[in-house]
Design a protein that fits this description.
This protein has a six-stranded mixed beta sheet, sandwiched between helices. A five-stranded mixed beta sheet has the order 3-1-8-5-6, with no helix packed on it. A four-stranded mixed beta sheet has the order 15-16-17-18. The chain folds into three domains: 155 residues, Distorted Sandwich (Spo0b-associated Gtp-binding Protein, Chain: A), CATH 2.70.210.12; 165 residues, P-loop containing nucleotide triphosphate hydrolases (Rossmann fold); 67 residues, GMP Synthetase, Chain A, domain 3 (2-Layer Sandwich). 39% of the residues are buried. With 418 residues, it is of the alpha/beta class. It is built from nine helices and 18 strands.
């Protein structure tokens, strides 16, 4: 099954907590703190894999989480880092933020790309030993990992895209110009998923993509083609295959498809286009071909018959000549930069709780409290200094806190003393 869109969640690992430990050894008095640091949490990378051609694997597994770092130990032993997680995707996958739709990365190269970095490990209590604080009984917790919801979009990497109504002969044309063998039948929507074929003739080589047929309203989601229009956005050249057998109105079909392309993407409508008037073996005269040629001018219109292999060589030569003067396949530039580290800011808010207490909230405050031993005097002093350095008390005073007012920081309550 061809799956070209998938929504997944990736999460980096949380850093391990620092350890609170003291050296204990026979005949060694007052050995001092020896708590080790926690290990770094695992990061999540994405890497292209040329053996993959669909996002089928992401249909059944939607969450990818890197392991956490291990906690620090005694005797100065640091915790083990969490192993990095690498997600493999097809070479032509766009990675977007699922909430905002912003492009994060175009997975067209071979280098691993960092999606979310693992949290740092916390410091052990040996890091807090000073000349005046020789037995710290607190340590820092590890930084939390980052969770990110992303959308994967597969966009085929082809030089040339075949567009046209169902049964115009796109699959037959792909089979005629390449070694690809797509299913060919005389009923609409024979092609249900994109097919790629490599054209090789002498020193000429390029990739052609055959997409399910478009119909009127495709840009609004009618039919099958709207699901695959994204696959021709990278194509440098479009071959518009038109049924010119007089069984259909070739000019009407030509205008209808171009209207759908323009509605889907104005830029796509301006893409260089070569018109292939197909089924030439069924013509009684050249009237349809001449009318279409005049209507499509200045675009070049070639008479071909995919079934009878007529005009195929001329078509390949024309395509090769046009590709030689066109820029390379586009690589999309990211619209946002992923933060290299989890949020390390000292974010907090202060509000009055029904006039009774002052409430201090924020992710930074929560992380700070996780590493405080409130049963230890030195640890409480460290907590007080950290709040003061961060400007928590200054903000409280600017909002009018008075002596003896109650301050609530999550589950902790105390009276304010200036």
């Amino acid at each position: 099954m061809f799956i070209d869109i998938a929504d997944i969640t990736v999460a980096s690992g949380t850093g391990g907590n620092g350890a609170v430990s003291f050296h204990r050894e026979k005949y060694v008095a007052a050995g001092g703190p020896d708590g080790g640091d926690g290990g770094r949490g695992g990061s999540v990378y994405v890497k292209t894999d040329s053996s993959l051609s669909t996002l089928m694997d992401f249909r059944y597994k939607r969450k990818y989480a890197a392991p956490n770092g291990e906690d620090g130990g005694s005797r100065g032993c640091s915790g083990k880092d969490g192993g990095d997680l690498t997600i493999r995707v097809p070479k032509v996958t766009l990675i977007k933020d699922a909430k905002t739709g912003r492009l994060l990365h175009d997975a067209s190269g071979g280098e691993p790309f960092l999606l979310v970095r693992g949290g740092r490990g916390g410091w052990g209590n040996r890091r807090f030993a000073t000349a005046t604080r020789q037995a710290p009984r607190f340590a820092k917790p590890g930084m939390e990992g980052v969770s990110l919801e992303i959308k994967l979009e597969l966009k085929l990497l082809a030089d040339v895209g075949l567009v046209g109504f169902p049964n115009a002969g796109k699959s037959s044309l792909l089979a005629a110009v390449s070694a690809a063998r797509p299913k060919v039948a005389d009923y609409p929507f024979t092609t249900l998923s994109p097919h790629l074929g490599v054209v090789q003739k002498d020193d000429i080589s390029f990739v052609v993509a055959d997409l399910p047929g478009l119909i009127e309203g495709a840009a609004q989601g009618v039919g099958l083609g709207h699901d695959f229009l994204r696959h021709i956005e990278r194509c440098r050249l479009l071959i518009h295959v038109v049924d010119a057998s007089a069984q259909r109105d070739a000019v009407y079909d030509y205008d209808a498809i171009n209207a759908e392309l323009a509605e889907y993407s104005p830029e796509l409508a301006k893409r260089p286009q070569l018109v292939a008037a197909n089924k030439a073996d069924m013509w009684e005269d050249d009237s349809v071909f001449e009318t279409l040629s005049k209507h499509a001018a200045p675009r070049r219109v070639l008479a071909v018959s995919a079934a009878a292999r007529q005009g195929i060589g001329e078509l390949i030569n024309e395509v090769a000549g046009m590709l030689a003067s066109l820029p390379p396949i586009e690589v999309y530039q990211p619209e946002t930069v992923i933060e290299p580290e989890p949020d390390m800011g000292r974010d907090f808010t202060v509000r009055r709780d029904d006039g009774a207490a002052w409430v201090v909230e924020g992710a930074w405050v929560a992380r700070l409290m996780r590493g405080v031993n409130f049963g230890d005097y030195e640890s409480r002093q460290y907590f007080d200094r950290a709040l003061r350095r961060a400007g928590v008390f200054d903000l409280l005073e600017s909002k009018g806190i008075g002596e003896g007012d109650t301050v609530k920081i999550f589950d902790l309550e105390f009276e304010y003393v200036p």
